[in-house]
Amino acid sequence: MLAETDVVVVGGGLAGLAAARRLHRAGVPWRLLEAGGRLGGRVATDAVDGYLLDRGFQVLNTAYPRLGTLLDVDRLRLGHFTAGVLVRRGDRLDRLVNPLREPTGAPGTALAGVGSLLDRLRFAALATGCATLPKARLLAAPETTTQTALRRAGLSDAIIEELLRPFLSGVFVERELETSSHVLAMVLRSFARGRIGLPAEGMAALPRAVAEPLPAELIDLDSPVSAVSPGRVRTQAGDIRCRAVVVAVDPPAATALLPTLPAVRTHSYTTYYHSAPEAPLDEPILLVDGDRREILANTVVVSRAAPTYAPAGRHLVATSVVGPSAPPEPTVRAELTRLYGRSTADWTHLTTVSIPDALPAAPPPQGRLRKPVALGEGLFVAGDHRDSPSIQGALASGWRAAGAVLSALRTGS
């Protein structure tokens, strides 16, 4: 069977959905093929016994530029996290917050024992520069690794090792801080400008909202694609003839479908979900390990930000580990007892979610972050491996790939 359409989008994650939205808005005939039984790709939520368990700890940043193009963020009913972090160092918990978001927390942040006051002032200056300078200027700066950039900002080993490495390892999904300084600049920019939160119905509400305006009859679930070539997409049900193909799948699958595409290294991430009868913290704030044990990346009481994530009378704790070798749950529980400073014996382990290809690696050189999406002969590629490794990168790349398709269709190239 040989069907026809103008554009076939392969992959129903955020990048593919963003591409379909732009094509649909332009009135170009399209069809989306998703190999799995749901939309959203790596952004998914499982509802289990009254808990909302995202496929790995993920958050939404309201400063992501592409969000406003695609959905009304207010409809997600975000529950927000504290704009700061708790650092465990021995018997002490230090609370550092963004004083612009929480002015009353400024004195405590200034007096915190993590690094020196000069460290904290220098980091504040770095974050402020990323938030206020033009994006083009930030991306035109000499590029290096995140670790080198932090040291060039004058930050001491103490604040890097006790605060920034554990915090950023959860953001970049890698502990070596090899991620490009350009990616670091965009991350600090978004954290300074936006608020971090979770949709009341789980992170899966995000792809649902992006997909909502799209006609269901143009989306085929459980439709894996075995091959793409100029003007043709091969599926189990037959070939589809088209004028353009947008491949919007994860990096390993993209390389399999587009052999000329350079392989992209990815990072692994594991999240442990526990149910607790009482919340170990009174606020929705990220807790990191300043004792440099490097077993856990972070832990947070998710239900303090979004109470809908847990049934009445219970709390949901999400704990994340970076790397392919996830420790056994009893080891994680012991670390949680130390970090929170209270017993976890009455906690229930709900599940462990491991994601082998959680985030594409982004070492320098990344340039201006935007990698080519047009491969020639009507083939296009989208995904956060073509932009910044983030939800914003996935949405932006899909939108950009669709724009390149529209341009090619208009010019006949």
TrEMBL record:
GO molecular function, one term: oxidoreductase activity
SUPFAM superfamilies the UniProt entry points to: FAD/NAD(P)-binding domain (SSF51905)
Domain Amine oxidase: residue ranges: 14-406
InterPro entries in alphabetical order: Amino_oxidase (IPR002937), FAD/NAD-bd_sf (IPR036188)
One Pfam family from the record: Amino_oxidase
Protein name: Protoporphyrinogen oxidase
Organism from which the protein derives: Micromonospora citrea
Upper classification of the organism: Bacteria, Bacillati, Actinomycetota, Actinomycetes, Micromonosporales
